[in-house]
Design a protein that fits this description.
By secondary structure, the protein is mainly beta. 0% of the residues lie in helices and 59% in strands.
């Protein structure tokens, strides 16, 4: 199984980006999927998560600006980021709890996608 993120880039403050995370390979199902970010010199922090039932959770710093969603038929999770701020600059990682066969669940990370917000 591979998780591949895309959609990062450079944007001005106030702008928007939409990140995608696609799971490929032996994916029997996806449970909770989350977006995390890591800025230089800082720890990796949770940004948003979504369960297989669609329940979502957000970091306080992004509430009202970011929206996580998923397309289960395509094993894809999105992060719509609006009203971006310079402090949102970080590498964004996708994390997923995936059913890889009929009885085995494993945790996967993507390789990350860079988001840079200029002031």
């Amino acid at each position: 199984v591979q998780l591949v993120e895309s959609g990062g880039g450079l944007v001005q403050a106030g702008g928007s980006l939409r990140l995608s995370c696609v799971a490929s390979g032996s994916v029997f199902g996806m449970y909770t999927v989350g977006w995390y970010r890591q800025a230089p010199g800082k720890e990796r922090d949770m940004v948003a998560t979504i369960t297989q039932y669609g329940a979502t959770e957000y970091a306080d710093s992004v509430k009202g600006r970011f929206t996580i969603s998923r397309d289960a038929s395509k094993n894809t999770v999105f992060l719509q980021m609006n009203s971006l701020k310079p402090e949102d600059t970080a590498v964004y990682y996708c994390n997923a709890d995936i059913l890889v066969d009929w009885s085995t669940r494993r945790d996967f990370w993507g390789q990350g996608t860079q988001v840079a917000v200029s002031s």
